[in-house]
Amino acid sequence: MTADAAQTTAPAGSPAEPHIEVEGLRVAFGSFVLMREVSFTVRRGDIFVIMGGSGCGKSTLLKVLTGLIAPAEGLIRYHGRDFTRAGPKDRAEIMRGVGILYQGGALWSSMTLAENVAMPLEQYTSLGRAEVRELAALKLALVGLAGFEDFYPAQISGGMRKRAGLARALALDPGIVFFDEPSAGLDPVSAKLLDDLIIEIRESLGTTIVVVTHELASIFAIGTNGIFLDVDARTVVAQGSPAAMLAQGQPTVVRFLTRDGSDASGRSKECA
After folding, report:
1. pLDDT values of the chain reduced to their tens digit, one per residue, 272 residues
2. Is residue 153 part of a domain?
3. Is residue 259 one of the residues assigned to a domain?
4. What span, in angstroms and rounded, lies between the C-alpha atoms of 100 and 34?
5. Rounded distance, CA 140 to CA 113, Å?
C-alpha cells in the first residue's frame, strides 16, 4: 500500500460513523480570539488533516482536542460522548483510547526504545514484565524498528525517533492517533516513509488518524478528509479532501495548496 492510494482507498469494512465531532468551537486567550465557530466531523478510518498557514491555530486546536487547552465555547464529542463537559475520570477514560505522536517524538532520553514504549503499558495495564516487554517489541516491529529495542533515542536517526514515538502512541491500541507535524525535521525520503507508515496503520489496524501539518506532499499523499483554518477569518474556510478543497476555489486555500504567492489580481501575497 503506497501513499498515492490514500485518497481513493478506504479501510475495508470500516463504517463511517463519527469518531470526533466538533461543534461551534471558540478558542480565546483573554480578549484575543484565535478561532471561532469551528465545526467538523472526523469519521472512522479518516486520515484527517488540519491545515493552514502559520499562526492559524493548528497545533492549538490539537491541544484543545486532547484536553490540554479548554475552549471558550463549543462541544467536542468522542464516539458520541461529551468530552468538553466530562469530569476528570471520564476525560481520562476517553483519552485512553487516543494516542499522540508529538512533533519531536517526546521520548525519554534516559530510557531505551522498549522502555519508552512500555511506559503506557505499565501504567494502564496489569500485564507482567515479560508480557510488557513482548508487546513493546511487537509495537516497535510494527513501525519497522525490530531489533532496536535496547537502543537509546540518541543512538538512532530523527526518522527512527519519530517511528519509536509512534510505537509508543500505539502501545494501548488506540482507535484514534493524533500527529503533530509528523514530517517536521525529516528529509524527504524519511518523510515519505512515515507517510506510507501512517497509511499502513490506518489500513491494517483501522485506526483513525488526525494530522496537523503544513507539508504539501504529505497533505496530498495521505489526506482523505480535513479542514483549512484561515488565519485572517479565524475559522474554517474549507472542508473535505485536499483535492475537493482545491476544487472549491477559495483563494486562500488555493494559494496554500498550490504554493502560489499571488492573489487573483496577480499581486504577490504570502500565505500567513
Report:
1. 444 444 444 444 445 789 999 999 999 999 999 999 999 999 999 999 999 988 899 999 999 999 999 999 999 999 999 999 999 999 999 999 999 998 766 889 999 999 999 999 998 999 999 999 999 999 999 999 999 999 999 999 988 998 999 999 999 999 999 999 888 878 888 889 899 999 999 998 999 999 999 889 899 999 999 999 999 999 999 999 999 999 999 999 999 999 865 443 333 333 33
2. yes
3. no
4. 23
5. 8
Q: Considering its fold, how many domains does the chain have in total?
A: 1
R_g (Cα) of the chain, nearest Å: 19
Note whether 156 and 164 are within 8 A (CB): yes
For residues 215 and 22, the answer to whether their CB atoms sit within 8 Å is: no
Does the residue 84 lie in any domain? Answer: no
151 within domain boundaries: yes
What is the domain extent for residue 131?
A: 109-173
Question: pTM for the whole thing?
Answer: 0.85
Identity of the amino acid at 118: A
Question: Which amino acid is located at 173 in the chain?
Answer: D
Q: Which residues contact 84 (CB under 8 A, 6 or more apart)?
A: 71, 74, 75, 76
CA–CA separation, 47 and 42 (whole Å): 9
Only one residue has cell 527512527, namely: 160
Say if CB 162 and CB 194 are below 8 A apart.
yes
